[in-house]
Amino acid sequence: MHLQQRITAFVKLGYFLEQFSNKVPTKQDNVEYNDLFFDGFKHQLKLAEEHNGWFTKENIQFAINSWTEALTKDNLEKWLSVYNFDTVTPKLVAIVMAGNIPLVGFHDFLSVLISGHSVLVKQSSNDKHLLPFLAKYLEYVEPNFKGKISFTEEKLENFDAVIATGSNNTARYFEYYFKGKPSIIRNNRNSVAVLTGNETEEDLQNLSEDIFRYYGLGCRSVSKVFVPKNYNFDAFFQAMYHWHPIINEAKYANNYDYNKAVYLMSEFDMLENGFLMIKEDKSYASPIATVFYEFYDDLNSLKDKINAEKQQIQCIVSNGFIENEVGFGHTQKPHLWDYADSIDSVEFLLAI
Fold first, then answer.
1. What are the record keywords, sorted (predicted)?
2. Backbone angles phi, psi at 190, to 5 degrees
3. Are the C-beta atoms of 67 and 175 separated by less than 8 Å?
4. DSSP 42-82
5. Residues 313-333: pLDDT tens digits?
6. At the N or C end, where does the chain have fewer CB atoms within 10 A?
7. 130 conformational bin, left if phi > 0, alpha if psi -120 to 50, beta if neither
8. Phi, psi (5° rounding) for residue 324?
9. Each residue of 53-88: pLDDT tens digit?
10. pLDDT tens per residue, range 27-62
11. pLDDT digits over 102-132, tens only?
12. Which spans in the chain are helix H?
């Protein structure tokens, strides 16, 4: 199977997903195998929402829309144009997927197959309904994928390389268990924003998307902001306010109430507006419904600190602060070439 065939198959998958990127799925006549798959995928979306309370209809739709926008011929060809696929020896690559946001492991799945390898997927129990169905669709639009995609709930065996994503604790286990294989192993990371006080209202409203999308559960979600001494949070809270309906969602509200009670009983200083708390803290990983903040003296010292602690950071949201920064409101809209942990997975896959 040539690279162009693989690209074409994923472009067709993008066309299929596009039907589900709006609030009401809309069946299109020109999408291949729609009679076989359209109603079935609607059912899988319903199952995913029922199975995991964090996978709301809106968040699943957002994830699908993101992949619809990514899986275009132009995007795929731009992404892959810098690599040489001529010398690939097909291998079996295992992927251990996280389950914190919908289809969070799809980029690894795509990278393995687009590189010409076969894939063995071990999914998280939190996100198990969507990907197997999409894999079956791929096998229909490109029959050469048959036999190259498998899923397992058992112990991973007989694979040649592995990409595994988990918590800091499971990452240590992965490093031990997979030590004899070529591997990419990812652990906990969080994203930060650097504010100067000169942000516009639009900047801060865009930042709210980086904070609240997926309830802050993604590694690209902003969980901490760095602010100058004596920063006034009034404009920040005002820009967050349009997300206030989030407190009506039970799982979020339960976390908000619990964490607020913990802070109050511990007599921690914090500010809150009824659906979001901010607390001064040097940690990067904040609980749900909480954003940590830390004061800085000057931007150069802050840059040194962030560079020294970059292994804990996924994205840096800022404006003209640092190389490879992400614009306000764009953390949850990565390009295909925006690799997790800045590790080029395609380069890894071409070298195994």
1. NADP
2. -135, 165
3. no
4. HHHHHHHHHH-TT--HHHHHHHHHHHHHH-SHHHHHHHHTT
5. 999 999 999 999 999 999 999
6. N
7. alpha
8. 65, 25
9. 999 999 999 999 999 999 999 999 999 999 999 889
10. 999 999 999 999 999 999 999 999 999 999 999 999
11. 999 999 999 999 999 999 999 999 999 999 9
12. 3-18, 34-51, 57-70, 73-80, 106-114, 130-141, 168-177, 201-212, 234-240, 250-265, 299-308, 345-351
* Residue 133, token pair as written in the block: 């169905």
Domains assigned to the chain: 3-188 (3.40.605.10), 190-317 (3.40.309.10)
**Contact between 178 and 164 (Cβ < 8 Å):** yes
Question: Which tokens belong to 176?
Answer: 């031990």
Q: Which whole-number Å values give the CA distances from 150 to 8, 110, 122, 139, 210, in the listed order?
A: 21, 13, 9, 11, 33
Contact 292, 278 (CB under 8 A): yes
Assess contact for 189 and 172: CB atoms under 8 A: no
Give the chain's length: 352
DSSP string of 249-291? Answer: SHHHHHHHHHHHHHHHHTT--EEE-SS-EEEE-S-S-PPTTEE
